[in-house]
Structure formats: C-alpha cells, structure tokens
Amino acid sequence: MSDLLTIGGRTFQRGTKDFVQFPVLLDLDGSQIQLTVHVLSGARPGPRLAVVTVLHGSEWQALETSLGLIEDLDPSEMSGDLVVVPVANPIAFATGTRNIIDESDSPDLNRSFGGRQTWLADQLARALVDEVLSKVDAVIDFHTGLWGAAMGSVTCGRDFSDPSVSERALGMALAFGMPHVRRGDLATKFPGPASMIGYAGEKLGVPGIISEIGGVGFAPEIEQSWVDTNLRGVRGVMKHLGILDGEPEVADEVLVFDQVTRVNPTVGGILEPIFPPEGLMRDIVEPGQLLGRVWSPYTFEVIEELRSPARGLVDMVCRPYPVRPGDWAYLVIDLDSPTNYTLKREA
Questions:
Q1: 39-66: string of b/e by CB count within 10 Å (b at 16+)?
Q2: Residue-wise pLDDT tens for the chain (347 aa)?
Q3: pTM, whole model, 2 decimals?
Q4: Which of 77, 110, 221, 327 has the fewest CB atoms lying closer than 10 Å?
Q5: Could you tell me if 179 and 251 are in contact, meaning their C-beta atoms sit under 8 angstroms apart?
Q6: Which fold is adopted by the domain 259-336?
Q7: Where in the chain are all domains bearing CATH 2.40.50.100?
Q8: Other C-beta atoms within 10 Å of 162: how many?
C-alpha cells in the first residue's frame, strides 16, 4: 500500500484529520447518494484500521462511537491511519429502518457484499469495498440494538479459508477488552461473505470484528457506558495493531462462546421486561427463569412469558416497547455448552 491513503479521489496527508464525500449512485429523485469517510492520518506510516457504523439504518447509536473517535484522537500520536465511515447506509438511515426500502432482492446492505447487481445496496457495498475495505489492514463493524433493545458482546470469525485471518481477528477481539468473545462461523454460514466482515475476511484477507454493544431507549447513563465501552475497545484494537502506543487492556480471563439462543416473542403486544438492562452480560440466569412477558394492549392480559432456555448470560436486553412477532427481546448464552472455553492471560 502507498504511504499516503487515497479515498474518493482525495489523498490524505500525514498528521491530518479530515473527511471526503463522494457520490455512489444517482437516485430517482435526481439526488446523489454519497458516502462520507473521515480519515485520521497518523504522523507516521503504519497499519490502517477501518471503523464502520450504521450499516443498518436503525442502529444509529454507534454514530456516537464514530464521533468520539474523531473528536478525541490526535493524529500526531498515531502511526498509520484510522478510517471512519459514520453512515455506511445513508439510504436506510434516512428512513430509520434496518434495511433499504425498495423492491430489490437485496435490501439488507450487510447481506449484499459481493453482489454484482445494480440494486442500491449492491452499489453501496461495492463502494465500501473499493474505497475502504480494500485499502485497510483491519476493520471493526459496529451494530447496536434497535430502539428498545441492546446487545453486549463482540464477535469474530473462526472459519476463514486463511487460518491467519481467523487468528488475527481473535487477537483484535481480545484487544477490545471484553471478558467474553463470540467466535463463530462468519465465512461458511449465513450470511457468509455477503456480510461486510465475512467478505473482508474471506475475499480480501482483511481480519475484522463485530461490536454488538449498545442500544437506545434506555437511561442516559447506561447508554453512555456502552458508548464508552466501544471507545475503549477501539483504542485497545489500535494499540494491538500498533496505531497507538501502549498495550491493550486484555481481560485476565475471556469466555469464548459460539452459540446464543434467541428468546423473542411469538406474538404481538407490549413487551414488559423482568430481567434488568444493568444485568447485560453480567448476571447469570437459570433455566426457566422469567426474563419478560408480553401483554395485550387491548385486553391487558399476559399472552406470553419469555423464559431462559439455559443457565447463561443474557446477551440482549430490552426495555418496555411494542413488539410484533419475532421482534428483539433477549439472547441467552448457554454457559454449560461443551463448545465454550476460557482463555487466560499469560502472567
């Protein structure tokens, strides 16, 4: 790679912090759909890390992570580059929806990488590959809960064709600093390389992790704690890669798991949580423990109870909000799964 990074036709000089906006496609109303990419170019050459937020338009809390990085980091203290894409899906973001509202076969941008059609999501995915993913050494993809739900873990892949990609991704996940990491099949199981992290790892050999920490609709202090966790995590990865000086703060013991069970409503109604959001990835639940209930907004009867399927940690929590069948409520990690294992930091 060249010493200086060029994105969207603009070359960024060392020791600078700036952004570029470039058109991706022309929409029906005559407007240009464009991407905005911020680059913090370190004073010295080094690795390049991309941070991508809002691939899903309704997961906008991660914008606070992008903002915090751009405001707080000083390029003069960096070696290499931090590339930040705050709104990877401006079309879905404008409608406040997870996916692009169109008549295409691929409305979900994070299921459209590698697509060769001219649908909106396919064109956005190709622009992200050509202008960002193909020019960096590592990537972090941020996803948060939609309004009313929050998640709490970090994921990396273990099944890339090049085993070194999987190992480098695990190193990034550990450097994020959480005491638990989900390590799953991101290349060989749905959505595979059609997701951004799957495509980056399998097709480009670029390791990446997914931070699924945070959500909106909760108390301001707990939302801010999730943002702070993400900011610390990115700094940890930057230290791990050598972009920032120092060593990342790695947990003494890290639970590595690969399975979560969704505990979501099968009926529509008002979701009443029992398990508190403060217990996210902290408090252990027992098999059959009541996590929440759904009651009818018409008769006020309880029409469904949501219970834990195992002894585990809760990887998604919710606040009271109206739900339709299948909407997000809880995720539970089975702590007794035989595929779990623990990594201990060397003394």
A1: bbbbeeebbbbbbbbbbbbbbbbbbbbb
A2: 569 999 999 999 999 999 999 999 999 999 999 999 999 999 999 999 999 999 999 999 999 999 999 999 999 999 999 999 999 999 999 999 999 999 999 999 999 999 999 999 999 999 999 999 999 999 999 999 989 999 999 999 999 999 999 999 999 999 999 999 999 999 999 999 999 999 999 999 999 999 999 999 999 999 999 999 999 999 999 999 999 999 999 999 999 999 899 999 999 999 999 999 999 999 999 999 999 999 999 999 999 999 999 999 999 999 999 999 999 999 999 999 999 999 998 76
A3: 0.97
A4: 221
A5: yes
A6: OB fold (Dihydrolipoamide Acetyltransferase, E2P) (2.40.50)
A7: 259-336
A8: 13
Residue type, 164: S
Task: Retrieve residue 215's tokens.
Answer: 């959500």
